[in-house]
Design brief:
The chain is an alpha/beta fold and 364 residues long. Helices cover 24% and strands 21% of the residues. It comes from Nguyenibacter vanlangensis. Residues 10-20 have a biased composition (Basic and acidic residues).
Length: 364
């Protein structure tokens, strides 16, 4: 329209034209510029993620990981990330799992091969078995966690094999490892040794394409090669007997919990250690040893299930190392909900008995 008179030209509708050119289906709609969408076949199958496969790598990097509840924790994924970095594009990563680890989970974390050998109960036999396992791979590096199990195994393997070791590396690259010395007042920089140990949160997890994670047959551990020590079966500790700072699964009560009988029953059914907020401990509903937070206990759990906890800053400081947080709260905007990976916006008094009924009835 010009000067109040009709020009006679047909006005275009770009939005309608674009909608007519969209082809539904597939991963996302496709835009056909000529508008001819008739007879076009679009696959609706989900696209498979690429998998990195390597048959004959130039060298191997081995990583020894203690399985946690049948899987990899944050630390284990970081160790595989370090191995993947040292292996580069030409090398392969073999995971020696102390326990059962799912092939897909390990492959996504960066493992090309998997050797699951179960628990090494005899510290005297451990270096013999590890040498037998990794010898066919002639690994350029063997990586352990700098914890009680990994640190001890790494040092025993170094003493048995004579391979050089760098314990407690704080910064790692392909060329060098940096570790503290002289009581932490200085740093020592050197080429990456054949055996290294890493504290937690020093290397990022692997974030590339999933690797094959092929499971290999592992030799049966010798019964008692050293001939000195004989160990009995491992008996898991009751959940209530595990210290709060070491518990892998913590169920915690806040001011929103009033039915503590159901709370205790649910914690027992889940096999979890009990925790609480400061307000609950101040009220005497839970012992002071159960307090979670900066002035209580700082957790290192894999999962933290919080009932009726708003999430004060002091309390959230106690969740710094928790891997998975599940929050049950009536307030959608509570700070604990923002911290949680999964939230249930409901009253804790309604959720707790429902969960307990599922557990007792075998529905969960």
């Amino acid at each position: 329209m010009t000067g109040g008179t009709m020009t006679g030209r047909i006005r275009r509708d770009p939005r309608a034209e674009r909608s007519r050119r969209l082809v539904p289906g597939g991963d996302r709609p496709r835009l056909v510029h000529d508008g001819n969408v008739a007879g076009m076949a679009v696959s609706r199958r989900p696209r498979e993620a690429p998998v990195r496969r390597i048959e004959a790598p130039a060298f191997w990097v081995a990583v020894v990981i203690q399985a946690v509840d049948g899987g990899l924790d944050r630390w284990g994924r970081q160790l595989l990330g370090a191995a993947r970095m040292l292996a580069g594009t030409d090398g392969g990563v073999v995971l020696v799992g102390l326990g059962d680890i799912a092939s897909r989970q390990a492959g996504e974390a960066g493992a090309d091969r998997i050797l699951a050998i179960g628990a090494l109960d005899d510290p005297e036999a451990a270096p013999y078995l590890l040498l037998e396992l990794v010898a066919p791979f002639a690994p350029r590096h063997v990586i352990f966690a700098e914890d009680r199990t990994g640190g001890d195994l790494a040092r025993r393997l170094a003493a048995r094999s004579g391979w050089p070791i760098q314990p407690g590396i704080e910064a790692l690259s392909v060329r060098q490892g940096v570790r503290p010395c002289r009581g932490g007042r200085s740093e020592r920089v050197a080429a990456v040794a054949r055996i290294i140990t890493l504290p937690c949160d020093r290397v990022a997890p692997y974030a590339g394409h999933a690797c094959e994670g092929r499971i290999l047959a592992a030799p049966i551990p010798p019964s008692n090669p050293a001939g000195r020590l004989v160990f009995g079966p491992i008996v898991p500790a009751p959940a209530g007997a595990i210290p709060l700072s070491e518990a892998p699964f913590v169920v915690s009560a806040g001011q929103g919990v009033t039915d503590f009988e159901t709370f205790h029953a649910l914690a027992r059914a889940l096999g979890a250690t009990e925790g609480a907020s400061r307000v609950v401990c101040d009220a005497g509903s839970m012992p002071r040893a159960a307090q979670v937070g900066a002035s209580g206990t700082v957790l290192d759990a894999r999962c933290y299930l919080a009932f009726g906890i708003a999430g004060a800053p002091q309390h959230l400081q106690g969740l710094g190392k928790v891997e998975h947080v599940v929050a049950v709260n009536t307030d959608l905007h509570a700070a604990i909900v923002a911290r949680a990976g999964l939230s249930i916006i409901a009253d804790a008094q309604a959720v707790m008995p429902a969960l307990l009924a599922l557990l007792q009835g075998g529905g969960a």
